Amino acid sequence: MLKYLGKTPDVVVDLGCGTGLSTRTWSSVSNKVIGIEPSADIITCSQSFHWMNPEKTLKEVSRILKKGGVFATYDYDWPPVCNWEAELVMRKDLFQWH
């Protein structure tokens, strides 16, 4: 495959990586390897879901998310724009860290 690409890949995505044997092999010839296994316990989108096509993204999340798993999409706005109960909990957590 490297011959067809004609260069060292910056990023390789290994779909269905399982135990990571193939992922490990690719890590020796590319700058970054991302392994995706369709049995994730948690899938997150941190400050990125708004850039995605919701219908296609949710379909793919549904395909690869393990039964009983969690899909979380979150963003961070300041000042917060949620309902007051969520803002209160977030503020409480924020101030406990300092």
Give the overall pLDDT as a whole number. Answer: 82
Q: In percent terms, what proportion of residues is strand? A: 25-35%
Sheet with the most strands, sense and barrel status: 2 strands, parallel
Radius of gyration: 19 Å
Number of helices: 4
Written overview of the protein:
The chain is of the alpha/beta class and 98 residues long. The chain has a domain at 1-37. 37% of the residues lie in helices and 28% in strands. It has four helices and four strands; from the N terminus they run αβαββαβα. It has helices spanning 2-5, 21-27, 54-64, 84-97, and strands spanning 11-15, 32-36, 40-46, 65-74. It has a two-stranded parallel sheet with strand order 1-2. The termini are far apart. The model has no long low-confidence stretch (mean pLDDT 82).
Any descriptors?
98 residues; alpha/beta; two-stranded parallel ribbon; 4 helices; 4 strands; 37% helix
Describe this structure in a few short sentences.
By secondary structure, the chain is an alpha/beta fold. The N and C termini lie far apart (50 Å). The mean pLDDT is 82.
Topology:
Elements: H1 2-5, E1 11-15, H2 21-27, E2 32-36, E3 40-46, H3 54-64, E4 65-74, H4 84-97
Parallel strand pairs: 1-2, 3-4
